[in-house]
Design goal:
Blueprint (H helix, E strand, L loop, with lengths): L4 H6 L20 H23 L6 H22 L5 H19 L5 H4 L3 H34 L1
Length: 152
Amino acid sequence: GWRPPDVAEKYPVHIVENFDHFEKYDNHPSTALVYWSWFQLITTLLLMFFMFNQIANIPFPMLLVYGLFLFLSVYSYTTLLDKSPWALLTESLRAAMGWGLIVAMGDWFGLDRMMPGASTLLALYFAFSLGVVAWFVFSEVWPERKTARAQF
């Protein structure tokens, strides 16, 4: 779109002229990381479907908390897939929030009424997920960051 000449000169916008030679973003995730991200996506979708199934039984303020948890879940696994060092922090926040919700409410939004012991399995999943993300961060993310810094 049109911009004043002084703004266009001071803040140039680089436009791709030839898309055949455009370098696309690709951080080359490992096959294991891609599979883990798919697993996280499916798990998040299952938790979202459970929320939709129980939407009439969950008070509105808790729906907002649940939505925040789902947002944090998606943000966490996409941050890891993007190979950001923040992935471990976001996954830690997600696990802490999940454990906190289970402890504060006694179960996961009534999931134990449908499947006894499911909240315990979910708490174990949060711990397992945190461990897997830590492994990916220490084995893939940080070594690549150190290599990238050494090249500069």
